[in-house]
Model the fold of this input.
Amino acid sequence: MKIIFLGAPGSGKGTHATRVKTELGVPHISTGDIFRENIKGGTPLGVLAKSYIDKGALVPDDVVIKIVEDRLQREDCKGGFILDGFPRTIYQAEALKKIADIDVVINLVVDDEAIVKRVAGRRMCRCGETYNVAFLNGADTCAKCGGKLYQRDDDKEETVKSRLEVYHKETAPLIDYYRKEGLLKDVDGSQGIEAVYADILKVLK
Done:
């Protein structure tokens, strides 16, 4: 099955895509993860991507399309895949149509105010664990490895608001685009994690 997860930054795309990946046994392809790998490695693409991401802006279409196209040609994608963070524009969606036939687009619906609260409260650990200050009770270390928690630059409140502005301008039009294609399914992403996941599984079945 070939699935796209749509939704604003912080709507839960990555969380639920990871769970669906395990359920279906297909790769979860996150453009954000690809960029973060390049940023960490200090590659030319990483340096370029960071200059856009730190401002809350989108990485240019043609760069993203090339990365995704190369990834979808790998052997593990033959049985299907989950795209998270791509496409972000109509231009990217049209390019994707030439690369792959999508089965369903899951749109996680969460209002902006809830997203700002959710994302600005997110804290990360170098080991990969993610937390939210609402549930940390003042703790600033990882429960798994004891590492110091930190806030990503693109999770700061002013950057989140900037990212949401970009999302509404550039990415939200994909909702109508995929609705017209007959592929879009809305899921209320403001519910608890288990309720959202149960609704996603209903869509997939």
